[in-house]
## 1
Amino acid sequence: MTHLIAIGGSDAGISAALRARELDPTTDVSVVVADQYPNFSICGIPYYFTGEVAPWQSLAHRTTADLEATGMTLRLNTLATGIDVPGQRLTVRTPDGTSQDLAYDELIVGTGAIPSYAGITGLDDLTPADGVHVIHSMGDTFALDQDLTQRQPASAIIVGAGYVGLEMAEAFTARGMRVTQLQRGPEVLSTLDPELGALVHDELTTHGVDVITNTTVSGIQKTPAGLTVTGVQHGEPFVQSADLVLVVVGVRPNTALLENAGASLGAGGAVVVDEHMHTGLPHVWAAGDGIITHHRLLGPTYLPLGTTAHKQGRIAGENALGGDRKFAGSVGTQVVKVFDLVAARTGLRDHEATAAGYTPSTVTAAADDHKRYYPGAHPIHFRITGDTRDGRLLGAQLVGKRGTEVAKRVDTFATALHTGLTIDQISDLDLSYTPPLGSPWDAVQVAAQTWQTTQRLTPATA
Amino acid sequence: MTHLIAIGGSDAGISAALRARELDPTTDVSVVVADQYPNFSICGIPYYFTGEVAPWQSLAHRTTADLEATGMTLRLNTLATGIDVPGQRLTVRTPDGTSQDLAYDELIVGTGAIPSYAGITGLDDLTPADGVHVIHSMGDTFALDQDLTQRQPASAIIVGAGYVGLEMAEAFTARGMRVTQLQRGPEVLSTLDPELGALVHDELTTHGVDVITNTTVSGIQKTPAGLTVTGVQHGEPFVQSADLVLVVVGVRPNTALLENAGASLGAGGAVVVDEHMHTGLPHVWAAGDGIITHHRLLGPTYLPLGTTAHKQGRIAGENALGGDRKFAGSVGTQVVKVFDLVAARTGLRDHEATAAGYTPSTVTAAADDHKRYYPGAHPIHFRITGDTRDGRLLGAQLVGKRGTEVAKRVDTFATALHTGLTIDQISDLDLSYTPPLGSPWDAVQVAAQTWQTTQRLTPATA
């Protein structure tokens, strides 16, 4: 019987444990979870704050009972503190504060990521009790919930306009709060080209969010005005106050445990693993937001995503039992709903492709989600990136109204990227059509044809 | 300057003409159109009858002015009657009834299909004036519209429960008519497995449609009761009457023109073309519902679909100008909305795969369209077919409520089929996820994993 320990109660650790139990029910599987909330959907937290998800318990992908029913042992409120690699022992701090060593045959580390502070002063001292929040765990969720309930803040500054920042802007707005959203770069949702980010910006503004771009926050302090955020906007000092501040400026890999055990760090300061999810340390595997991601177009990179963590965890669980499955690689597919808009991307943007050695060209396109004569048609806005040398699809970005099936249209591009199709070959795909839901040439094909036409008009002399 | 003539004002002919004008604006392009309604969306006709599309003119993909603005010449109300292949001349009957010969350098035939009568007696004599209808052209549309308006029929029998039959059941129901839908086979929408067709059946019943399966119609006659449909149901005589009868039992290729010119007929009695859309007759190309379809899993077959006609027309237009583009092949992707349900398929069903020499296994699966904790989640029901020898994906069928993005989820399977992925590789795809629109393992991956699990539990000894 193999003794397998997975560290981490989020996507990677639980996926690994589930896979091991699925493949070989004789495996003894323990999952070491730092808090008491295993298998919660961190991506769902914003919808708890909009009021759409209640109670908070329903955010669990599976209940503790569900997990235990698979035969795994959950060690909750237990912190992994050290790995004895040669001795194959994991040291943990148990719920009562004592130290304990656990023997393992195979260890899978899914310690994830932790919120980045982006060098903002004040964040080390100010806490949720002061009205300053991050949102990355159920603990953060409870702290924010308590603050919202007890103080009833009327205004919030959200530092950051990425996925979580935008979702939380919607959540605070839904609760009747005045929201100011600060973004360092020239446009919100900087994972998209600004042409498309501007559509998201408009959606925020339409719903009353005060969006301020080109603003770098350097500090947060308590003042008579509440919480005051200071920084620089276009080279000038920036000062604004609100009742509450939420900092969502990204994450960084939580690598201490593996680093101390001798693992190597790579892209983004994340732990290096091979495509089998092996760390290079004997019997030690890793998965999720703490490790590098193999990207089909970029090679090793750092791109923490829940979908990837699920896949990597599943593979680590399989390989820890002697399997030989490779992580096939991410293509960076992401989607976010912002009020009534959906924004998605997959693959590379123009500058990313250039940096990676491709010779990209990117065009803007638009096409209706379904036949215009049928009620409710709306345009989907695209940016399509392809390689001018061989016509290979490199990336696609889509923004459309909710209901335009943008989230699953990006999947067609993601599948095409995975399999290495050219943009021209997208016209060959046999995609579905009925007038209420599509067009004989689907919107994704119209966008692809726009790229093709542009290339023909612009000989590749540049 | 090349003189190109395209025959047919529907998808294939117009796509060919548009492509030729796009690629070489010096090409002289004429389109011979039997009626005066070029480039109308035949797939949209049911939505004219629901009342969702008005006026009927909006069913045009492009107006006559739009088409002429591309530089093509439209010869409306002009019937192609003969091809002189060696002389490269097309004989037409002009609007004033005279015969005229038109010289061409290249000819593209897109004469499409005509409604099948399935051997039902009475259909040759009874006309729209009697309340008996087919629905395949704008002429049919006007005739049905006039009948509905003038006679205000209270009841209809729809013979057939395929795509158009189901859409017309919805349309008649929306107009307050009592609808009886007769289906020869054991379940409606026989392009799906009965397990999924039953969901469509329930949707029809819920909306008041009287669905009668296992009923073969043999005749229609005028009686004091209105129009009486007779046939056989489970070996017993079947008789039912209504104010109106709509016969939608499929189509057959309209091949007379090419057949008389010496073209070969193949699968389904359709004209044989190669993958370049060439008929084998010098300078004569063909595309659309009148020809065989190259299917990536089946080889040559007959599968008339608008999406395919667009692709084939575009390729014929390109190759007629000296291009070298191959039709990459259909995978039979289809989708239909029936009231609030969407049903889609791509690839092969189990018995089709067996007949084609594969060794299929098909499983049923279900998965929510998005995280259940977020409001509005609904299950999508799947049938997944794969080859037990190599794990290759052979087909997928999906049924889900409108809004579950079934139409674009089937496209992920269609793209996977096009590129020859195994079902296992579908788990490797980097598909998009946000809780309101998906799950970390998308529903299509959950379905794929169900197939994988079933294979592991059932060793391929059968």
## 2
Amino acid sequence: MRNLQGRLELCSINTATLGHREPLNQTIERIARAGFGGIAPWRREVEGGDVPRLARQIKALGLSVTGYCRSTYLPAATSAEFSANVEANRAALRDAAVLGAQCFVLVVGGLVPGSRDLEGARSQVVDGISMLLETARECGVPLALEPLHPMYAAKRAVVNTIAQALSICETVDPDRSGFIGIAVDVYHCWWDPELTASIATTGQANRILAYHVCDWLHETNDMLLDRGMMGDGVIDLPAVRSCVERAGYNGLVEVEIFSAQNWWQREPDEVLAICAERLQTVC
Amino acid sequence: MRNLQGRLELCSINTATLGHREPLNQTIERIARAGFGGIAPWRREVEGGDVPRLARQIKALGLSVTGYCRSTYLPAATSAEFSANVEANRAALRDAAVLGAQCFVLVVGGLVPGSRDLEGARSQVVDGISMLLETARECGVPLALEPLHPMYAAKRAVVNTIAQALSICETVDPDRSGFIGIAVDVYHCWWDPELTASIATTGQANRILAYHVCDWLHETNDMLLDRGMMGDGVIDLPAVRSCVERAGYNGLVEVEIFSAQNWWQREPDEVLAICAERLQTVC
């Protein structure tokens, strides 16, 4: 496993970690100044802005873009809505290309509101991803399918385990084109009894496109916005990274923390300093 | 699949559904009067009371005991503590036998507080269950290992999928003695992409000992105490029960709802009436 001590160039900050409190150009500046090697911005910060200019700023500061967050949810009640969702993702993929993103993160969406058809939603997800794969190839930006914790199955993502995500990758891309893989986020998968085995199967296909860290707090008070800083929770972070790297992943380690009551209340530079310290000591 | 219309004798109420607001003898009376065929009491209502007397009351009213809730958590920081946990479960198994319970529900416990050793906790669970199996046989009360939703992995149970629970059953009981199986609770497993496949494998071994229903609310506001009434959420209940019965389960359908802000605020008889109606129409 790589030693991250003194290697902040191997580390990236997902801008959600700072709570989206400043314009993206300031966040870019801050993250570069703190010495990180990468950034993962969100569409809400990018869309409607001067995308090429942001891309130039990121490049000039030597940051890589470890991911562009995130897809419009795919499952829909009507085919017109479904098509609109796919189109919104195509537009985002074009921005991802301008930004030079290493992947476009797919958070696929939950059940159609009012529906109990989990299989149907999963099937729409496979269809939507198939349609996006061609655009990904044209844009040169791979799709990183992110399995979300099962507690988000109803509202945010019907893809909930690494094994399931990998199976979708094989279905839509049996030739392993390099344009679809997975994002492994420790928060979503740390509990999985099949974690080690599932990650081990990714090696041959080079399916891991991103690796996200944070921590699961023993006392978690909110299902969405109470993620912990690495080291403050129960996840054996070195064990997971070791698996991921044994499977061939050699990209950056990206910090993604949603924390309304704690980290989003602190000064951005303080948060970045603590991320840097924890990345080098407990990840 | 069995039709539950007019068949409340096939339905059971877990006493947690009523919020543990009354002494157990009143709850038993209420559940019998409402026409249900079974009850699943909790140790907090039983221990320290006159257990044989409660057992006689339950029997006289014609109720079966679909489960006795629930085990003391197994993983511990010291071997003395671990042994004490096993002993506490042995004592509970003896009460389960007095009550005539069809199974003793194993909620196995989370990580040892302060520890990140998930594998270690899982290994302690297997050891503890092996030790309890002999007592279960002596008492004539099978152990029903209940996989809990992954969001409880840290604090309540390191057994989180049906496949994992079944694998533990095979490890500790390769001869399929009938004294260990699983409790399938829709709340914990509805999201699992392997749900249908996992349940289908239980048939040969007759491993399903209990089947619990409630619902997952689209808007879930609390990770523990915000379960929904059947029909109010997103779970395709007939689909799950159909799987479970195809695998050979012919026991009662037990309602278990933790709901601090809604159902536990209502009159117990109202809750029971709504349970009865929903069991017959949407389960």
